[in-house]
Specification:
Elements (H helix, E strand, L loop, with lengths): L13 H26 L5 H17 L4 H6 L3 H20 L8 H28 L6 H29 L2 H14 L19 H17 L1 H10 L7 H9 L7 H27 L4 H21 L4 H30 L4 H30 L1 H25 L10
Helix pairs in contact: 1-2, 1-5, 1-6, 1-7, 1-10, 1-11, 2-5, 2-10, 2-14, 4-5, 4-7, 5-14, 6-7, 6-11, 6-13, 8-9, 9-13, 9-14, 11-13, 12-13, 12-15, 13-14, 14-15
Length: 407
């Protein structure tokens, strides 16, 4: 009798939008709400950029603890633990007074909450990888990154509005509760396969290691790793826009509206479009293309007149194209990892992808402090062009050679 491969149990990908919102909400809260408040209590742009870099650090290192998610507990339980703890930490930060010395305690708090939220994302990544068919990787990736970026709008826009119009405590409490509520889709998602696990924990870890090594052995895996370390689609300028908004004479309410709620809404169709386009063309090529388009946005912002209207136009365009890049990123990652030890493989790629966020934040913060906001924006455009050129050169260098014709 012919054996049939069991069909993958799937759910509507809109559930991944909700699952990824906490990851974005924490980032939006730190990079928009907190960044704006810190700037207005005397903290320098360079120090704020340093906090942005610290926020990225756990995302660079998270592959180190990803095997725990692949080998212990269930993905749904990891997700639930992550949202509860991260939601409580956001509420706690909102209750603390801010001042020029707040960076001292915010630095370790930023590392801790971003470490916790990586576990939240890992639970969602495993559920998505095991619950998505191969031809829908881009679509699922687009929905997940729509949630990531839409969550950034929630954490940044709603958070800043509450912090400036009600109180920082209200912002922390409301966002903390919203983050925890994002666990509701767990009720409707199928459980992930645990066939890669073994009763012997050491054997389970060995199975994970073997599965991860399969990425580095393939050309597709190498190309994914390489494109992710390039300074493409980083969205770093978006994280620093609240700190430079005064140069465009933009008010606090406009910053919260444009970089928060409206940007989050604008990024959602961007991410969905990026994911769907990635299912139609080469997924890595789509990621490079969207990274270059985002660089063009910040270059245009740097040379355009410094008026509130120009700030709004370019900031929104930047967020839309950034959403497309994020959707393509998730599509490339899902294509490369397949199933199995999905958390470790996905986060190996994510660690590489977050490395440019770390060094670009430091570079752009340094440029901004010494040469101004215009130079900072232009530097991101230059980095994108350099990254695209390096990737194309690497792809050409490892392209399989055609066999020589017989003589």
């Amino acid at each position: 009798m012919e054996m049939r491969t069991p069909a993958i149990k799937t759910a509507h990908p809109i559930l991944y939008l909700v699952l990824y919102m906490p990851f974005g909400a924490v980032g939006g809260y730190l990079s928009v709400t907190l960044a704006y408040q810190l700037k207005h209590v005397g903290v320098s742009t360079e120090a704020i950029a340093g906090l942005v870099a610290l926020a990225v650090l756990p995302n660079v290192l998270k592959v180190l603890w990803a095997p725990l998610v692949d080998t212990l507990l269930s993905p749904k339980l990891w997700y639930l633990l992550g949202v509860v703890v991260s939601g409580l930490i956001v509420a706690g930060i909102g209750a603390m007074p801010l001042g020029p010395t707040s960076v001292v305690w915010l630095a370790p708090a930023t590392v801790v909450i971003n470490t916790v939220v990586t576990v939240t994302a890992m639970g969602g990544e495993v559920l998505m990888a095991h619950g998505t068919t191969p031809h829908e990787k881009g679509r699922a990736g687009g929905w997940s990154q729509a949630g990531n970026l839409g969550g950034g709008g929630l954490g940044g826009g709603l958070g800043l509005w509450l912090a400036t119009n009600v109180s920082p405590l209200a912002a922390g409490l409301v966002l903390g509760a919203a983050i925890i509520a994002c666990a509701l889709p767990l009720l409707f998602l199928p459980n992930a396969s645990v066939e890669h696990r073994d009763a012997n924990y050491i054997k389970s870890l060995a199975s994970v290691a073997k599965d991860v090594w399969s990425i580095a052995r393939s050309r597709a895996g190498l190309l994914a790793l390489f494109v992710f370390v390039m300074p493409l689609g980083t969205n770093i300028a978006g994280s620093l826009m609240p700190a430079i908004a005064d140069d465009w004479r933009v008010s606090a309410n406009t910053v919260s509206l444009v970089l928060g709620v409206v940007a989050g809404v604008a990024a959602i169709p961007g991410a969905l479009a990026g994911g769907y386009i990635s299912d139609l063309i080469n997924r890595r090529g789509a990621y490079v293309l969207f990274g270059l388009l985002q660089g063009a946005c910040v270059l245009g912002m740097a040379i355009a007149p410094r008026t509130p209207l120009m700030f709004v136009i370019f900031a929104l365009a930047y967020q839309v194209v950034g959403g497309m890049a994020f959707g393509a990123y998730a599509a490339v990652a899902l294509e490369a990892i397949g199933g199995g030890a999905a958390a470790t493989k996905f986060n190996l790629l994510a660690s590489f992808a977050n490395a440019p966020l770390l060094y670009c934040a430091l570079i752009e913060g340094w440029v901004s402090t010494r040469f101004g906001s215009g130079a900072m924006l232009a530097s991101e455009a230059v980095l994108a062009v350099v990254g695209a050129a390096l990737f194309l050169g690497f792809a050409a260098a490892i392209r399989p050679r055609a066999p020589a014709a017989a003589i």
